[in-house]
Structures are given as structure tokens and as C-alpha cells.
Amino acid sequence: MATSIRKVGYYKLRTPNKPGVGALLLQTLRENKINLLALTAFPEGKGCQVDLVPEKPEKLKAIAKLLSAKLSQEKSGFLVQGKDATGALLPILQVLGDAGIGITAIDAVSAGKQRFGAIFWVPAKDVAKAAKLLKAK
Question: Is pTM, for the whole model, over 0.70?
Fold first, then answer.
């Protein structure tokens, strides 16, 4: 399995930082058949910022509108999937670093069965250049 990199759209959603809110969000997404490619969340102020990478952005936007949820405008990130190995992300980070592109944030995980995944963000001004350098789909 070769490493694949694709540019993805993601949306920020602010939620209360209270027990059960994340489960309710995921239940709502499941009930509305919204598949996520990635999700990351962290405390922000007195709330929580949830970054959602939907497989089908139009479905997420339609449900958010229906529920009066305030999604951010679409922003760009990069989704990486590939064969897990020591230093699997190193070539990607080296290409970006050599080009003077910093990474705003990154989340990576071993997915078992020798697979890994990651999502990362670069400054908006560098998205097109990063996509070209990484041959992101």
C-alpha cells in the first residue's frame, strides 16, 4: 500500500465542552449517514473546537443548516493514508520543510494491520504550493 495524500476540505464547529456532547454529535452524524474521513477536537476557551472532514461536504452542510449548527467556511487540510513504518511521515515533512512550509497542526495514528493515517494543516497561503509539492489528489 503506497502512501496517498489528498487535499481535503474541513469545517470547524464549536460545541460546549461538556460530557456527552461529542457522542451526541457523532450520533447525529450517523443518523444522517454522514461519514467522516477525520475528526479532531480540542478545548477552546470555555467550549470545544471540532474539526470535521466529511466524505461528502454537501451532506454535512445540509444537515448543519437543517440543525442551525454554525459551521465555518470550508478550509483545507491534507489527509495521508499509507503503510505504517518507522518514520512514515518523515518524507512528507521533509518536502514541506525544505520548501519553507510550516505545519500548523498534525494528528497521526497507527491504524493497525501496518496502516497509518494522518491529517495536517499548513498556512492558507501555502496550501496550493504544498498540494503541488506533495502531488496531493
Answer: yes
